[in-house]
Amino acid sequence: MEQQESKLILITEFIEQKLRKEQELEFYLKELTELNRKIGFLRAEVDLTNTIINMIKREQVYDIKEEMIANNENKLIGGSASE
Prior knowledge:
Strand content: under 5%
Shape: rod-shaped
Order of helices and strands: H
């Protein structure tokens, strides 16, 4: 009888352990889903920020180019007027 009781206790412990692990697994799967959602939002924000930075950089390059052209035109106009 004692051996049967110890087997019952052992089986009960394994079943309880299995249930705890299933609950823990479920918890972490929910956490993982939430983390993946947050990662998706952060990636989108980083992409948007990079796009804005690139747009600003390109705009600055164009401004510099336009400024150089305007300065050269002023020099040409100023140079021909002084001659």
